[in-house]
Amino acid sequence: MRLSVQDLTCVRGGRTVFEHLSFDAEPGKGVQLVGANGVGKSSLLRILAGFLPPAAGTFTLEGADEETPIGEFCHYVGHLNGVKRAFTVHENLAFWADFLGGGEVDEALDAFNLLDLRDIPAGLLSAGQARRLGLARLRLVERPLWLLDEPSVSLDEASRNILSATIEGHIAAGGLVIAATHLPLGVKFGQTLTLGAEGTS
């Protein structure tokens, strides 16, 4: 699959965040979004995930069923982890497995070094552990497009290495990754898109 973005414009609260943004995300490469706070990195990802409407422009996922929203083909990891504090670690991921349509819960937990914590209530997790639980959805169910917003927040070095390997594995398998980050992710992206630069705002 290939994501094509054409002349996309984002307006939030009456302010034009970016306009006339065009780029292509090729399978097996990956796009890194960079730029100062407020230039629209998070807004762009939320538009692509279907959470915000664009003010203008279009985006298409070539090779996907045109009748199915792009959000059905993607994993979105935002600033919040999507974790229910009263559920155990295992119950949280089991919920997402049911919602997303399957997946091996223990394998996904093991991939992010959470298997020993499977019966712990998520409300007792550290910030880094909760972030890993949110990221474990990436390994739970296959989705061709990953939209990642500052995915390494709260992670220690060992966990960042797990994340980097997970992203690189998805890209190497022909997947699409668009990641907004202020910090190096240790991943070789095929394209870096700087929002706020001339022609994007």
- Helical proportion? 25-40%
* CATH H level, superfamily name: P-loop containing nucleotide triphosphate hydrolases
CATH class: Alpha Beta
Secondary-structure element string: EEEHEEHHHHEHEE
Mean pLDDT: 94
CATH topology: Rossmann fold
Instruction: Describe the strand arrangement of the main beta sheet, using strand numbers.
Output: 5-6-7-3-8
Low-confidence sequence ranges:
none
CATH architecture group name: 3-Layer(aba) Sandwich
The general outline is globular
Largest sheet: 5 strands, parallel
Distance between the termini: 27 Å
The radius of gyration computed from the alpha-carbon positions, rounded to a whole number of angstroms, is 17 Å
Give the total of beta strands: 8
Query: Count of helices?
Result: 6
Task: Supply the helix-strand structural class.
Answer: alpha/beta
- Taken as a percent bin, the fraction of beta residues is 25-35%
Integer tally of domains: 1
